[in-house]
Design a protein that fits this description.
This protein is of the alpha+beta class. The chain is about 40% helix and about 20% strand. The protein contains five helices and seven strands, in the order βααβββββαβαα. Helix 1 packs across helix 2. The termini are far apart. The mean pLDDT is about 90.
Length: about 130
Amino acid sequence: MVGTRIDKWLWAARFFKTREMASKACEMSRITSNGQRAKPSREVRVGDMLSIRNEAADWEIEVLALSQQRGPAAIAQALYRETEASIELRRKAAEERRLLGPIASIPTGRPSKRDRRLIHTFSGKR
């Protein structure tokens, strides 16, 4: 096997839940291969350096093996090696998210009568 479509490889390596999501990420220029924008049909080969941006994090990886089938997470992690710089950036981002704390939850439903009175008092109405 000389190469594999990059969208199939990203799906098999578990960076995206579906192959369609991997294709869309390629089309939106969130995937670069060896410094160049990667289209979904581009072939990935062993030794390629990929830059991947998804909802979870930004990754800089080196392709170690090819696969067209999605398997267990342990096998998927053996398909690539993350660079030290990428590991450090992801660690810093996680630490920043931890320090920001939880995001306040948005109340569901209508405010109670007491809440409405407080809202009107605060906003200067009535």
